[in-house]
Specification:
Blueprint (H helix, E strand, L loop, with lengths): L7 H16 L12 H6 L18 E4 L2 E4 H5 L3 E7 L5 H12 L1 H6 L2 E7 L3 H15 L7 E3 L4 H5 L5 H5 L1 H4 L6 E6 L5 E7 L7 H17 L13 E3 L5 H8 L3 E4 L2 E4 L4
Parallel strand pairs: 3-4, 4-5
Antiparallel strand pairs: 1-2, 3-6, 6-7, 8-10, 9-10
Helix pairs in contact: 4-6
């Protein structure tokens, strides 16, 4: 004989479940408590991804030259934003001193410099005295106080290992990042160095010269290019058009043609 279940049975069964749910308090799933620094500092689970050509994230910050809004502070200038692991550290001290010495060169190119270190303002001010003494120069550009690492995370200035160690060690130091940003607030160059390796200020200056020359004249620059040396005519420009624009064009290969723009 075939088994038979009344249509009313499921309805009665569901009614019983609802009654039991009312009578019995709902069970709450206990989630592990977030570490204290995560709850209050809102450390992101994943670092952002920045790309060449994307708009540099804006931010407000306290600096050794007062409070700034980054985009407003830039105005119609180029900017170099570079980060440092910590105040009163040897490599960082030599780096900031070297950049400070190039103040006039960067100003000629309409470039503003902005440093960042993961310490507070008082520490920055005391450290600046050491930088000036060691480098025999004046600290003429501001240093951001990024004690909560909010800007460091926004610009992906954290190593993967430090990111993974946050639950155990707390907030990480920042790495040596360099961002060259144009007046349209677009990121034009990113360079990342390990903490053990100091940067090359001459290379940063060379890159600015290359970018500004390319923007102004519609050319590209070859390996190790310096101002005054031959530049390359991009493949999108015909040799005939290049000769009309630049005069002499030296063709090494149909796709590799040099000219001199005299800058």
């Amino acid at each position: 004989m075939a088994s038979y279940i009344s249509r009313a049975a499921p309805r009665a069964f569901n009614t019983g479940l609802r009654a039991a749910a009312v009578a019995r308090p709902a069970m709450r799933v206990q989630r592990p408590a977030a570490p204290l620094f995560r709850r209050f500092l809102q450390v992101p689970a994943e670092q952002p991804r920045l790309r060449l050509g994307s708009v540099a994230p804006n931010f407000q910050a306290k600096t050794t030259h007062g409070d700034i809004d980054f985009h407003q502070w830039m105005g119609d200038s180029w900017a170099i934003l570079f980060s440092h692991p910590a105040d009163f550290t040897p490599v960082c001290t030599t780096e900031l001193g070297a950049f400070a010495k190039l103040k006039d060169e960067f100003e000629k190119r309409n470039v503003k410099m902005l440093g960042l270190s993961a310490d507070d303002l008082e520490s920055h001010k005391d450290w600046s005295k050491d930088i000036e003494e060691v480098a025999s120069t004046q600290m003429s550009f501001p240093i951001i106080a990024d004690a909560d690492r909010s800007i460091s995370f926004k610009y992906d200035m954290i190593t993967q290992q430090d990111l993974e160690d946050i639950p155990k060690k707390g907030l990480p130091f920042t790495i040596r990042s360099v961002f060259v940003i144009d007046p349209a607030k677009k990121i034009r160059l990113m360079m990342i160095y390990p903490a053990s390796t100091g940067r090359n200020t001459a290379e940063v200056l060379r890159v600015v010269d290359s970018l500004q020359t390319a923007d102004a004249l519609g050319v590209v620059t070859p390996i190790n290019w310096q101002v005054g040396e031959d530049v390359i005519v991009p493949p999108s420009v015909s040799t005939a058009d290049a000769k009309k624009k630049f005069g002499d064009v030296k063709e090494v290969k149909p796709y590799l043609r040099y000219t001199n723009v005299g800058n």
